[in-house]
Structure formats: structure tokens, C-alpha cells
Amino acid sequence: MKTRKQLEAGLAELALRDPSMAKLWTHTGSPRPRARPPGFITLLRIIVGQQLSTHAAAAIWKRMEDVGITKDPAAFMVQADEDLRGYGLSRRKIVYGRGLAEAIVSGRLDLNGLGKQDDDAAIAALVALKGIGRWSAECYLLFALGRPDIMPADDLALMVSAGKHLGDGRRWTPDQLRREAELKWRPWRSAAARLLWHAHAIEAL
Q1: pLDDT of 2 higher than 90
Q2: How many Å apart are CA 99 and CA 16, to the nearest integer?
Q3: Strands (E), the chain
Q4: pLDDT tens digit string along 44-84?
Q5: Which whole number is the average pLDDT over 119-125?
Q6: Phi/psi of residue 25, nearest 5 degrees
Q7: Has residue 203 got a pLDDT over 90?
């Protein structure tokens, strides 16, 4: 679900399944397509951005881009810890980044094979790596692999948006969001996530 056409098709199917989502779509309009390239670059960017503001993460990423270590796991592996700390990475994120790079270079994480696995198997392969939790793995499948049926239910913005637009205004729990997604939005849960994020972003402007 990487193109506008794919996203619109998913939203149309979603609207047929849930009148509340149809109403929200009419109110907010469609979100823009938001795709990330599959592979090391996006997984590393997810790690870099954990628990940081968008601005801070972007600044660190720019420093890493400038020295050419965001696309090539082998190049990342040979960087000294001192240099990586100088770009702004914490010690923990250096460990996570090195672990990711090593897994790819060694073949322990098969990125091409990952794209051919079903959602559950792909998520399991990713969360086996230090620094990649379920939310990170789900976002990778949604944005980098374009999977149509992913709901990152632990995402705070999704819980807040669902509570406001589909509930009584109180933030939903992850279990509430998963249950609603399973009952009403499958197999277009990615479209539902994109619409709820879009609604939340509009309110934040």
C-alpha cells in the first residue's frame, strides 16, 4: 500500500466495512502516501528515531548521511563507537545499529526473504533483533513493505485518535484498538492506521 491508488482502494474497502471510518474519511480527506525504502536504511532510521523528537532524530540522521553510513550496513559496522557517539547516537543505539548491520551482513537477517514472508513471520524475524520491538517491526511492514493489513496498536497517536473519533473521547487501550481492527477493518488495517494517523495530524496543526 505504497501508492495513492493503493491507499485509496484500501480506504474505499475500509469505508464499506465501517460507517464510522467512512465518516472520518469524508471529514479528513485522504492521507498522503508515505512509503519508505525497504532494507537497512529504514530499519536503522527506526532505531535512530526511537524516543527522540522528529527534529533531534533528523539532525542525527543528517550527520550520518553526510558520512555515508545510512545505506550500507558494512560501512556502519566499521565506524568507531566514538564517531557514532559524535553523530548523536546513544551507546544503546550503537549496539542496536551494529546488531542490525551484523545480522544483515552475515545473512542472519535475509531482507529479500523478509519481503516474501507472511506478516507474522516477518514481524517475528525483526523482533528477534535487539532494538526492534513489535511497533517498529509493524511500522516497517506498513511503510517499507507496503503490507495492507497492519495495525501498530501500541502507537500512542493511533490510540488517541481512535478514542476521539470512534469512541467517547477517552484514549483507547492497545487491546481495544486491536479488537476493533480485527473485527471491523481486516484485511485493510493499514488503511485504518493511515486514516487515524492523518486525523490526529490534522488536529495537531
Answers
A1: no
A2: 43
A3: none
A4: 999 999 988 889 999 999 999 999 999 999 999 999 999 99
A5: 97
A6: -60, -45
A7: no
Residues 107 and 196 in one domain: no
Angle at 143 between CA 27 and CA 120, to 5 degrees: 110
Give buried/exposed letters for 115-146 (b at 16+ CB in 10 A, else e).
Answer: eeeebeebbebbbebebbeebbbbbbbbbbbb
Q: Does residue 30 sit in the same domain as residue 45?
A: no
pLDDT tens per residue across span 82-101: 999 999 999 999 999 999 99
CATH number for the domain harbouring residue 91? 1.10.340.30
Domain count, the chain: 2
Q: Are residues 113 and 159 in the same domain?
A: no
Does 44 share its domain with 30? no
Q: Where are the alpha helices (DSSP H) in 18-90?
A: 19-28, 40-49, 54-66, 73-77, 81-87
Using an 8 Å Cβ cutoff, are 123 and 116 in contact? no
User: In this model, does residue 205 exceed pLDDT 70?
Assistant: no
In angstroms, the CA 199 to CA 61 distance is 27
Task: Specify whether 139 is located in the same domain as 171.
Answer: no
Does 107 lie in the same domain as 199? Answer: no
With a CB cutoff of 8 Å and minimum separation 6, the contacts of 90 are none
Cβ-contact 188, 149 below 8 angstroms: yes
Same domain flag for 47 and 118: yes
Question: What share of the chain has pLDDT > 70, as a percent?
Answer: 99
